[in-house]
UniProtKB/TrEMBL annotation:
SUPFAM superfamilies on file: P-loop containing nucleoside triphosphate hydrolases (SSF52540)
UniProt cross-references to InterPro entries, sorted A to Z: Helicase_ATP-bd, Helicase_C-like, P-loop_NTPase, SNF2-like_sf, SNF2/RAD54-like_C, SNF2_N
Signal sequence extent: none
Span of domain Helicase C-terminal: 549-702
Protein name: DNA/RNA helicase, superfamily II, SNF2 family
GO molecular function list: ATP binding; helicase activity; hydrolase activity
Sequence ranges assigned to domain Helicase ATP-binding in this UniProt record: 306-465
Top-level taxon of origin: Bacteria
Amino acid sequence: MPEEPAAIVAAEAPRPGAPARRLVEDHHRRAAAARAVLDHLDGVRARVAAQVHDDRARRVRAELDGLTVDRLAEVTDRNLRVRALAAAGFTTVGSLLDATPEQLETHDGIGPHTARTAVAAAQQLADATATGLSMRITLDRDDASGTRLLGSLEVLVRLGPEVEPHRRDLDDYSRAVEPLVGAARPATRPLTFLLRRGQARRRATDALVALAGWDPWVRATGLDRLLDRLATARAEHGPGPLAVWDDFERRSAEYYTVLGEIVPVARDVLASHGMLPSELADRVAAVELDTTLLDVSLRGYQAFGARFVLNQGRVLLGDEMGLGKTVQAIAVMAHLVASGATHVLVVCPASVLVGWLREVDRRSSLRAWRLHGPDRDAAAASWLAEGGVAVTTFEGLRHVPLAAGEVLDLLVVDEAHLVKNPRAQRSQDVAAWADRCWRVLLMTGTPLENRLEEFLGLVRVLQPALVDALPAHLRLVGADVLRHSMAPVYLRRNAVDVLVELPDLVELDEWEELTPAGEAVYAAAVAAGSFMDMRRAAFATADPAESSKLGRLLEILEDAAESGEKVVVFSYFRDVVDLVRRTVAETRPDAVYGPLWGGVAAEDRQAAVDDFTAAPPGAVLVAQVDAGGVGLNIQAANVVVICEPQLKPTTEAQAVARVRRMGQVRSVRVHRLLVEGSVDERIRELLTAKSRVFDEYVRESAMAAGTERAVDVTEAVLAREVVEAEQARLGYGPVWDGLGA
């Protein structure tokens, strides 16, 4: 674009008539095209902003409509006449939002003080609620409002990268040219031009000169090619109402980024940031994370979580189950040890202690010490002398030796919701240790924001001053607002928040120990050479306290119910399936479906699946792996529990495929219940090589059905190898009777 278009001499202007007409019309066409594409994008942005505004207003209204007006007394003085407000029809805080003090005063019993205070308090709650609300896009394909929003965002995602780099040039050009086109139009008609007065002719001539001055810039920038490309892109039809959801799932980060440019608060829902204010998120993202002692690659949101813990010091990490809270904790440990720290202590339920020891060993170069069982004292002494990561249970915490003045670099408390009761002994033990350590990480996948006192009880362990300073009115509003207020200490991401980073299949090995009762049953099975009894020894009793796998299974089901998920439980054994169903039905009879097993007719199996699909979140479907793993679509669930290792890679793969199918919009989480030092471990070792072959040659093969036999281990061979190994380990002779029992 020339800096001084007027510097072009008049002789360079086209003659009045056809040459001038071509020049004017060409620039008019270009300016109109440039303005049209800019106005189109701006109009879409305006629609998005309006929809977000309306959605936020609706959500604020819904939140406050759920608060009865008498709750205002908790955030105002006690002289507020809430009964008079209710008698006048203002029964909820939301009903006060459209009222003025003058309107309230017209009702009996409502004076100026109550009227002004009530309206001010309602508005205060509305403002607080709106501030904390994020624009979260929920994966609900039947949501017409969400579909409209995604349709608008898709236009911006698709056209924005084409237009935005040229926005300033297009805007400057169209703004400059449009008035010149109007001024130069008299020169397009020779007779009219000649009849104009001298001053009018000069204005038209000057406008022609100015328009001609833009021609070199138009050619140099390839404006015509750009406008043609933008017109073609604008004319393209985006994905339909259903396909746009698929596009959002693939590129959710791009959609949220565009949304964040229009509605700044939307930045709070970017995958790795949870609901942190942008200033805090920026500080956290700037933390340098040392991963030299880490033996695993972190996903983006996991690295952010580790940085958050390091930056904040005392944190409640509430990520949904399956997002890798353990890995984030290990990343924090590895960073601290690489920086000179020596002693880390992990406190967890006994059911996950083995898993912690294995994860520390597998995911890092850190030394893990087991402060539990008969060797507890010796391990504790070694930990104190050599440093590393000590892992103990809530009950064992009081036996951990750490003299006054000795430094603990990091305290990690897993399943922290178990210490929510401040009067419980284990809660007091954890609180006492937290007081001795500057860095404390509490972890729980249970959503606690809607259980205010429990949530604040855990926050109080970390930062009591934050709880004491919490304004009273924030205790009345919703979970999002509370999370916003607790941002310095609380970070929670749901699977849907990090869907773009999360694999569509998350596999978790749940390693347990046999209880004394289970050990007795297992030893007898090994002595008898009963392979099948060895496989189900961890389910030998119906008491979860005496059955390590059953106890852990119930914890997984409880966490899934808290998170609004549905679960399918698979076992090879009919009696294990029946045991699981009975146990779940004892506390939640309306939530358990099935069992599905070989003796159930096909139509009855499908009916059970249909009932399970229609059931509310928290439902559990139990099935034999051979019956439920073939021919059924169970994508209503996104959590799978496999009670014991299966003898063929294909068996587990087919069972998981029932859930992980086309139409599944969430990441599928698979929990495998395993017992350390048992037949489970031996089966896993023997099948590892075969599973790799299966992955490489079968899973992607069009001839998979015919190839399975080439990679599966026969049950008889596997049974003999496993029983022989276990008998040798436990000191029994090779007893083969009843091998197939």
